[in-house]
Design brief:
By secondary structure, the chain is of the alpha+beta class. It folds into two domains: about 40 residues, no CATH class; about 40 residues, no CATH class. Helices cover about 20% and strands about 30% of the residues. It contains one helix and four strands. The strands form two sheets. The chain has a two-stranded antiparallel sheet with strand order 1-2. The chain has a two-stranded antiparallel ribbon with strand order 3-4. The relative contact order is 0.12.
């Protein structure tokens, strides 16, 4: 008895950590046809996750890019509306 609440609190904390929701997302700039997220510093990335609305038309034809210092923008791949 009394274990469900603490368990769910831990689940929420771990989920936020796993998805990155517990960290600042950076500065977002919105322009026609694009969103740019600038991080506070350059860093190596192992993965990039972009969440979309299920079935959202905005993902159709969209690509994900990363800016590499001294090299410019590099295409990482297409944005998938289904994950």
């Amino acid at each position: 008895e009394g274990v469900l609440g603490p368990f769910l609190d831990r689940v929420r904390k771990e989920a936020r950590s796993w998805t990155g929701a517990d960290r600042s997302g950076g500065e977002v700039t919105e322009a026609p046809g694009s969103y740019t997220v600038r991080l506070d510093r350059a860093r190596p990335l192992e993965a990039v996750t972009a969440t979309t609305l299920p079935g959202g038309e905005a993902a159709a034809g969209a690509i994900v890019q990363a800016h590499v210092p001294d090299e410019g923008w590099r295409t990482l791949g297409p944005l998938s509306a289904s994950g």
